[in-house]
Every structure is written in C-alpha cells, then in structure tokens.
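Chapter summary example: a protein plus NAP.
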Amino acid sequence: MNTRRIGDVQVGSIGLGAMPMSIEGRPDETRSLATLHAALDAGVTLIDTADAYHAGADEVGHNETLIARALASHDRGGDVLVATKGGHLRPGDGSWTLDGSPGHLKRACEASLRRLGVEAIGLYQFHRPDPRVPYADSVGAVRELLDEGKIRMAGISNADPEQIRQADEILGGRLVSVQNQFSPAFRSSEPELLLCGELGIAFLPYSPFGGIARAGELASQHVAFARIARAHGVSAHQVCLAWMLARSPVVVPIPGASRPESVRDSVQAADLVLSAGEIAELDAA
Ligand SMILES: NC(=O)c1ccc[n+]([C@@H]2O[C@H](COP(=O)([O-])OP(=O)(O)OC[C@H]3O[C@@H](n4cnc5c(N)ncnc54)[C@H](OP(=O)(O)O)[C@@H]3O)[C@@H](O)[C@H]2O)c1
C-alpha cells in the first residue's frame, strides 16, 4: 500500500475505523477479530478507535480491548499506529456525552494505556470540544500527556480552523492530526482539510461513506461516484476513498468496517488512480 505520514510515522494511506465493531449493532467477537486481522493482512497500519467506542455503560474501552487482542495475535500487530481518543462518554442509553475536563482526559488516557497494553499511546486525539470547558484547558491536558511521555503524538477531532491553530500553538507546533467528518455528502470540513494541507498536519476524514447507517447507500445517492466506479470496475467506496486521497497528500481516510470483505475492498483504493477529469467531476458532484 502507498504510505502517508502522521507526524513522524509512516502509515498505509488507507486506515481502518474500528467503531462499527463495538457500538450498537456490532458483530460477534470472532468476526471482529477476523476483520481486524484482514486489515493487518492487507497492509493497514493505522487503526482508529476511542475509549467511547462501546455500547453498554459497563464496557468502556470495548474497542480498545478488542484491538489490543487482535494486534497481540497477529505477526504485524507491532507495525500498527493505534489512534485512540478521549473526551466522549457513553452512558449506555445510546447517547454520547462530553467531558473535556483536564482531570477526565488524564484519567481516560491512563485507562486507555492499560487497555492497549502500551507504555505510550501512539496517537491520542481530543475527541470533541466540550462547551463547558475552555478549549485551551482540554488541549493543555493533552500537551501535558505529551510532555509526560504518556502519548507519542497528539491530535484533535471535530475541530474548526481556529481550534486547529489554537491547538497547534498550545501543543508547541506538535499537533500531528485533525479528524473531522468528511464524505461525498458532508463536505463542510473542506476549510479544515485545506488548512491541514497548508500546515502539513494529517487530515483523517471520518465517516467517509456517510457513516455506518448510510454507507450502503453511497452508490445510489451519489451517481457520479457510481458511474466512475463502473468505468474502473471497482466499488463506489473505493472511488470515494481514492477521491479523498487525491484531495491532498495529508489525507488519510479511516473507513469503518465490521466485515473482512469491507476492509479488503476499501484498501484497494490506495492503488486506484483517478484522472484529473474524474476528480474534477467528483469535486463538483
Ligand atoms: N471523531 C469522531 O467524532 C468520529 C465520529 C464517527 C466516526 N469516527 C471514526 O471514523 C470511522 C469511520 O466512520 P464510520 O464507521 O462512522 O462510517 P463509514 O466509514 O462512513 O461507514 C462504515 C461502514 O461502511 C461499510 N463499508 C466499509 N468499507 C466498505 C466497502 N468497501 N464497501 C461497502 N461498504 C463498506 C462498513 O460495513 P460493514 O460494517 O458491513 O463492514 C461500515 O459499517 C469510525 O469507525 C471511527 O473510527 C470518528
């Protein structure tokens, strides 16, 4: 697979979002482990997770634990950059709540370290701004984790351009990634994508197919993607990811999956070359 950089780490240009394997509707563990192993077999070296990727209130970190198990039981487990997050909570009723307080982020990071079984987390991302906590305080906690060596690299998620600049300043120029929603249907993170390109910060588009519930409708809802997919004899999902990769060299999509087939299909986007005309058509679609 072609590679891209996140900070000082080279990763395959298509990552894996592991959320569908832990939230409501998740598959059984055997299928989840097979999906994670299929990703490693296919050369995926970036796996995105979060302590909040779980369903019941009593299973915080379900996804991190699953990933740790999958990596420990595969030859290439050591090659993977695990990108986790803190700052979201799931009370168990299907909702998502926030706690961006420094105290919570510090405790959450310690718990993620234990679940992942590592001395330092590869990439720790502040999940989402908490309106009750000054952004500088939340990012300040991440800076302390970085300075203490508990995390190797720092990222943010669901951030606007001002927050990206502010976070990079607070982190002393050490912000390596921004993870925002970006898909054919949801393009309003374009300014953040462009800013990341300018600053040389990795941009990780999340829910690239429109999210778990909508991923199956990609071809029917976006005819230009479907038409170009037919011309290349590939899935609309591959075209979607190849289009994102073509947007900027800092883009590293993290498509979610809960089936090995999905992963195997998505990673092929790394080698799919779209013409300038096709990219322009998809930009305009
Ligand atoms: N930072 C944040 O606030 C935030 C928010 C949401 C998500 N995320 C991250 O972003 C990741 C991706 O987003 P997402 O999982 O919400 O949505 P998504 O990537 O848009 O869609 C995921 C779904 O796409 C299907 N899929 C994957 N590859 C496919 C292919 N090649 N062909 C057909 N279907 C395919 C999968 O189906 P199967 O399940 O059947 O394999 C999966 O359930 C998450 O897993 C998570 O790591 C972050």
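Key point: The chain has a mean pLDDT of 98.
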